[in-house]
UniProtKB/TrEMBL annotation:
Enzyme Commission (EC) number: 7.1.1.-
Molecular functions per Gene Ontology: NADH dehydrogenase (ubiquinone) activity; oxidoreductase activity, acting on NAD(P)H, quinone or similar compound as acceptor; quinone binding
Function, as annotated: NDH shuttles electrons from NAD(P)H:plastoquinone, via FMN and iron-sulfur (Fe-S) centers, to quinones in the photosynthetic chain and possibly in a chloroplast respiratory chain. The immediate electron acceptor for the enzyme in this species is believed to be plastoquinone. Couples the redox reaction to proton translocation, and thus conserves the redox energy in a proton gradient.
Organism: Stegnosperma halimifolium
Protein name: NAD(P)H-quinone oxidoreductase subunit 3, chloroplastic
Catalytic reaction list: a ubiquinone + NADH + 5 H(+)(in) = a ubiquinol + NAD(+) + 4 H(+)(out); a plastoquinone + NADPH + (n+1) H(+)(in) = a plastoquinol + NADP(+) + n H(+)(out); a plastoquinone + NADH + (n+1) H(+)(in) = a plastoquinol + NAD(+) + n H(+)(out)
Sequence intervals crossing the membrane: 12-34, 62-83, 89-112
């Protein structure tokens, strides 16, 4: 039978974890100084007056490099639990992980051939 009182700790945690950020935003909105002058609305770059327009176009290569990094970073997150329980899982899971790594290698070779790993 589904008993709600078994989930009291969960509901308390959910309510508290929802109320704390809401209160933080409310208090910061009430206590923060409000000053909208020309200095507040100007662009700021490390304490130096910005030179030129604030809207610059970046080359797509930087974004592609970041996406390739994220894909292979997430791949390690998926492989870590498999590696920790390798002795328990068996041969079928080894074959699945091997296919997963092969797909990632194919993706790496494709990105390499397309030049997505070249920084300059």
């Amino acid at each position: 039978m589904f008993l709600l009182y078994e989930y009291d700790i969960f509901w308390a945690f959910l309510i508290i974890s929802s109320v704390i950020p809401i209160l933080a935003f409310l208090f910061s909105g009430i206590l923060a100084p409000i000053s909208k002058g020309p200095e507040k609305l100007s662009s700021y770059e490390s304490g130096i007056e910005p030179m030129g327009d604030a809207w610059l176009q970046f080359r797509i290569r930087y974004y592609m490099f970041a996406l390739v990094f994220v894909v292979f970073d997430v791949e390690t997150v998926f492989l870590y639990p498999w590696a920790m329980s390798f002795d328990v899982l068996g041969v079928s899971v080894f074959i699945e992980a091997f296919i997963f790594v092969l797909i990632l290698i194919v993706g790496l070779v494709y990105a390499w051939r397309k030049g997505a790993l070249e920084w300059s």
